[in-house]
Amino acid sequence: MKAELTLEGHNWRFDASEPVEISIPLIFDGPQPNAYGVDLARSTPCAAGDLVGDTRQGGSCNFEQYTIIPHCNGTHTECVGYITNERISIRACLKDVFTPAILISVEPLLADATNETYSVSADSGDSLITRAAIEQSIAHAAAFDALIIRTMPNSEEKLTRQYGEPVPPYFTTEAMQFLIERRIKHLLVDLPSIDRLYDDGRLSNHRIFWNVDEGSFDTNDDTRLDSTITELVFVPDEVEDGLYLLNLQIAPFASDASPSRPVLFRAEQN
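Below the sequence we write its predicted structure tokens.
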């Protein structure tokens, strides 16, 4: 179904019948990605007296209790409430229904191969997503507000990868500053964090992206309350780099993060 949409004065054409989903299916009690070695997401049938929420156990229907750590168990979208004392909700922050987006594929560089920096010392074996790599990939792109980064090499192993040591790639300080310069509102990555997985708790890249002072747990007048970060997406190889419209779906949780379902539609700007 062909559709047209006007966003901030720009006209977009896309096929609404060809969505591209880039979330990782969360298989309860099955293989799933994980960060920091936390408990896996799981589901258990609800039970109360003779009532059981599992038809295989004699129940009349299935209803289960889910236990999940959104930041570590799969594709999730987070807001600035992730790093503030004030309990700010992702539901209140994410207001966009469709967002112009660009998908790029980036090859992280070894820390020794770039002069770009990070808030804590990078180990020589760390892999970094640099400003130079991002800048080169979007140099001639049309206007967009969301950036989706697929790290290379790509592999379906990302669907169930256990993230810990060695640390996965992360962004340089210069890369994050560039995203602010380009006014990127929504950042989506196929990594468990835009920061180094073990960074002494600084979360400096998150603070740069949301404009929260280093070491602070408070917002300020310039904090980017309507910006979001989505981590642990998976972009299949057959999905081409280029312009899309992003429909970022979340559960209506009053929390700093929610499991999410980013959906892309290949788009052309008129």
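The longest strand covers residues 257-269.
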